[in-house]
Predict the 3D structure of the following.
Amino acid sequence: MQDYSRVLAQAVEDRLFRRLGLRASGDRDADQRFLQMFLAALKTSGLSFDETLHRAFGGRAWPQGDDWREVSAMAAGFAVDQPERLDHPYFSADRPTSLVIEEIEALWEPIAEKDDWSAFEQKLADTRTMAEAYGFDPVVADDGQKALEAALEQPSAIGTEVQP
């Protein structure tokens, strides 16, 4: 179970760096310190997770205020991961694509009332565009086997102790 926890923690850290558009430094302690400060600032500021990641992607526009001053300064020490992604049209949009429950629930009203799937189909298209902008491949839900296989393909993320 310890291996699973370590693999999961590393995968979450990797995904968060990817959503921030930054490359982890390779110093796990420094990377974790930065992510912890980011999450603490996000929590105390009350800002939207998706909105913050959308605006701050690649260091473009960090939120202002005391909560964010040190996060922004630390972020400057990380390289932008795949800088060409900064030019993706998704990051020029006023709002990020979000999957908050209220938006998802609102998609079902026109389906239930009028069999109108257009808003749902648009949300899927928007989500695909967002995934493309962040450089994510679609992941099909399963029992966890695909995630474990993907993690095992990245030995630097999980160490040498993990065995399939």
